[in-house]
Amino acid sequence: MAEVLVVTSGKGGVGKTTSTAALGAALAQTGQNVVVIDFDVGLRNLDLVMGAERRVVYDLINVVQGDANLNQALIKDKRVDSLSLLPASQTRDKDALTAEGVERVINELKGRFDWIICDSPAGIERGAYFAMRHADLAVIVTNPEVSSVRDSDRIIGLLDSKTEKAERGETIEKLLLLTRYDPVRAERGDMLKVDDVLEILSIPLLGIIPESPEVLKASNLGSPVTLANPISAPSRAYLDAARRLRGETIEMTVPTEKRGLFGSLFGRRAA
Amino acid sequence: MSVLKFFSRRSSAPAARERLQLLLAHERAVFGRTDLVATLKDEILAVIAKHIAIDPEKVRITTDTKDTLATLEVDIEIRTPNGGLKLAG
């Protein structure tokens, strides 16, 4: 049975697209059939982060409107063949999405994949509703920072009221993914700690992704960070999070970069 | 002295935490996320309003958790027409 997962946050720039790509690739690396869908119509970026921007011919809107079928629109990843991308449209506006069309596409994808990961746009408008609408579980991407935590709280409220599951009277599972975390600053008292955010939002923790230059390097190259540099600290955190999504129990840690002798001597990683 | 000051400088994360807890207690009440503080506020106010005239705007309710101790702080400003405090019902 396919799991529909929405990656959402309310606030922009906290790492939704990075996390969608990284978790999608990590799940696919464990042999699962995964499709990642970009719901940010008009401002698509998942294709770019995944390095598939030059391979987009048809998109979600074309499929929703019946101008193309899924086989034409799905882009198979060149590195992991159980990973596919359904891109958003860059030229159309978000009103081109319809509730019935999105539902039909999700239902069709359920027959083909183990995981359907919906990358939500920022904000709480149509695109965000469509992205969360059919979700079985939600990953709330949050930075340890006041505006991000506030927006996550708002999104949790919407997930509890506006999703299909909530309307059926069921509870949608919500998991916190804390990104751009800096344990040193948190320990110094200059950044909200993991426990602070957990206490305020009161949802279970999926993972802690440390702040790292590896994330930008990976997006520069057009590769999910878990594929670009699987042994880097953020990749190990994402890979652990993906295994937790599959039901494994893994001790919660904040991975740190393993420095070689050269790196330790000069205080930075050799590029 | 300056060294002492350096080590005792106030960190900013506790302020972030307090501001968020206060703000979200109110926002959850407005946006409908079930919230204990909002429910408590309504019920406590209803009981007090039976006996004393109070201004709902002058009520502040906060919760805090430190280690194993949780506190609920209710701050109500009560005024009578002549400005003095009068609690006798």
UniProtKB/TrEMBL annotation, chain A:
<keyword id="KW-0132">Cell division</keyword>
<dbReference type="GO" id="GO:0005524">
    <property type="term" value="F:ATP binding"/>
</dbReference>
<dbReference type="GO" id="GO:0051782">
    <property type="term" value="P:negative regulation of cell division"/>
</dbReference>
<dbReference type="GO" id="GO:0009898">
    <property type="term" value="C:cytoplasmic side of plasma membrane"/>
</dbReference>
<dbReference type="GO" id="GO:0016887">
    <property type="term" value="F:ATP hydrolysis activity"/>
</dbReference>
<feature type="domain" description="CobQ/CobB/MinD/ParA nucleotide binding">
    <location>
        <begin position="5"/>
        <end position="225"/>
    </location>
</feature>
<keyword id="KW-0131">Cell cycle</keyword>
<dbReference type="InterPro" id="IPR025501">
    <property type="entry name" value="MinD_FleN"/>
</dbReference>
<dbReference type="InterPro" id="IPR010223">
    <property type="entry name" value="MinD"/>
</dbReference>
<dbReference type="GO" id="GO:0005829">
    <property type="term" value="C:cytosol"/>
</dbReference>
<keyword id="KW-0547">Nucleotide-binding</keyword>
<dbReference type="InterPro" id="IPR002586">
    <property type="entry name" value="CobQ/CobB/MinD/ParA_Nub-bd_dom"/>
</dbReference>
<dbReference type="InterPro" id="IPR050625">
    <property type="entry name" value="ParA/MinD_ATPase"/>
</dbReference>
<comment type="subunit">
    <text>Interacts with MinC and FtsZ.</text>
</comment>
<feature type="binding site">
    <location>
        <begin position="11"/>
        <end position="18"/>
    </location>
    <ligand>
        <name>ATP</name>
    </ligand>
</feature>
<dbReference type="InterPro" id="IPR027417">
    <property type="entry name" value="P-loop_NTPase"/>
</dbReference>
<dbReference type="GO" id="GO:0000917">
    <property type="term" value="P:division septum assembly"/>
</dbReference>
<keyword id="KW-0067">ATP-binding</keyword>
<comment type="function">
    <text>ATPase required for the correct placement of the division site. Cell division inhibitors MinC and MinD act in concert to form an inhibitor capable of blocking formation of the polar Z ring septums. Rapidly oscillates between the poles of the cell to destabilize FtsZ filaments that have formed before they mature into polar Z rings.</text>
</comment>
<protein>
    <recommendedName>
        <fullName>Septum site-determining protein MinD</fullName>
    </recommendedName>
</protein>
<comment type="similarity">
    <text>Belongs to the ParA family. MinD subfamily.</text>
</comment>
<keyword id="KW-0717">Septation</keyword>
TrEMBL record, chain B:
<dbReference type="InterPro" id="IPR036707">
    <property type="entry name" value="MinE_sf"/>
</dbReference>
<dbReference type="Pfam" id="PF03776">
    <property type="entry name" value="MinE"/>
</dbReference>
<dbReference type="InterPro" id="IPR005527">
    <property type="entry name" value="MinE"/>
</dbReference>
<protein>
    <recommendedName>
        <fullName>Cell division topological specificity factor</fullName>
    </recommendedName>
</protein>
<comment type="function">
    <text>Prevents the cell division inhibition by proteins MinC and MinD at internal division sites while permitting inhibition at polar sites. This ensures cell division at the proper site by restricting the formation of a division septum at the midpoint of the long axis of the cell.</text>
</comment>
<keyword id="KW-0132">Cell division</keyword>
<dbReference type="GO" id="GO:0032955">
    <property type="term" value="P:regulation of division septum assembly"/>
</dbReference>
<comment type="similarity">
    <text>Belongs to the MinE family.</text>
</comment>
<dbReference type="GO" id="GO:0051301">
    <property type="term" value="P:cell division"/>
</dbReference>
<keyword id="KW-0131">Cell cycle</keyword>
